[in-house]
């Protein structure tokens, strides 16, 4: 019998922190999260900006060899939209927020755990 060593993906999620800078849109938080927490996938919200940022990470594998892997950071949109209605975001001068979320589907194929993602409004 052959044993297959599977890497079980680690997902870190948080409501999120920080501001909604017109320039960075919260993307700078990806580096902060990756420095603080070890994971394969990072999910956050808070800024109401939707984006996906792949970043590289150097780690040791199970055989103590150095490997470089791609990790993914996803910021999710919002279900709230007070833009142009006199709400807080409107008073702060923010642009219209991204609305919606992301479905994740993990599955097993060719001795690996794979991931398929779908954006939703």
Q: In terms of structural class, how would the helical and strand content be classed? A: mainly beta
* Amino-to-carboxy terminus distance: 46 Å
Poorly predicted regions: none
- Shape, please? elongated
Tags for this model:
single chain; 2 helices; 12% helix; elongated; two-stranded antiparallel ribbon; 121 residues; mainly beta; 37% strand; four-stranded mixed β-sheet
Q: Which helices and strands occur, and which strands form pairs?
A:
Blueprint: E1 11-13, H1 28-36, E2 41-44, E3 51-60, E4 66-75, H2 88-92, E5 101-109, E6 112-120
Parallel strand pairs: 1-2, 2-4
Antiparallel strand pairs: 3-4, 5-6
Task: Describe, in plain words, how this protein is organized in 3D.
The chain starts with 10 loop residues before the first strand and ends with a strand. Helices cover 12% and strands 37% of the residues. The chain is mainly beta. It has two helices and six strands. The radius of gyration is 18 Å and the shape is elongated.
